[in-house]
Amino acid sequence: MRIGIDLDGVVFDSEKEYRVYSELYDMIDLKQNSKTDNRNLTFQDRFNWTPEQIDGFLKKYHKQITLKSNYMPGAKTVLKMLKEDGHCLILVTARGTLNKDMIELTEERLKQEGMDIFDQYFWAVKNKAEICSNEKIDIMIDDSMKHIKSIADLKIKTIYLKDAPSYDLAENEYIKVLYNWGEIYRYLKGL
User: Among 183, 142, 179, 182, which residue's Cα sits nearest to residue 162?
Assistant: First the structure.
């Protein structure tokens, strides 16, 4: 099976790191309370920040969060098991969109940690549905409701990994909502 895998919020627990540091930045650095909707995936959508404030947050925290975030519980184990089971693992991530340097730093981190196991890498992706279609991905694992919906609309199976406050999404033939890598492995083995 060709499995597409997002990076942030799926392999790395960076989304929780972003949540923590965006709260601190809003309260301490900006001295305000500008949160608009905690269910939004990106900090840009959770806070009512100016472009300058977003840039300030990125300069202060982006590299630190990118390099220091932990793996999601079970991600390393299950990804290696999927690889051993003979699946084709395809990384499809927006990482690198805000800062191209993060691509090389992440590749080096994956290599150092023995996680350079992906068969293909797609960095700085804005349209994941297009990549999934073009690469004939059988199932995509992502934590973004927006991406899940657009991929499922192409009749490609998806797993919506729901780990933080986020919007609910109804399951159907192409959308499965799961909460951890153990559930993901069980579901994929059943396909």
Answer: 179
Choice between 93 and 15, residue whose per-residue pLDDT is larger: 93
Q: Which CATH number fits domain 2-13+70-190: 3.10.120.10, 3.30.420.10, 3.40.50.1000, 3.40.50.410?
A: 3.40.50.1000
For 139, the token pair is 């199932």
Q: What is the pLDDT of residues 133-153, one digit of tens each?
A: 999 999 999 999 999 999 999
For residue 178, give the 3-state DSSP assignment: strand
Residue 114: Cβ-neighbour burial (10 angstroms; 0-12, 13-18, 19+):
exposed
Domain borders along the chain are: 2-13+70-190, 14-68
The dihedral sign for the CA sequence 163, 191, 147, 62? positive
Cα–Cα distance, 62 to 14 (Å, whole number): 10
**Model confidence band, residue 67 (pLDDT cutoffs 50, 70, 90):** confident
Task: Give bridge partners of residue 5 from the DSSP assignment.
Answer: 91, 141
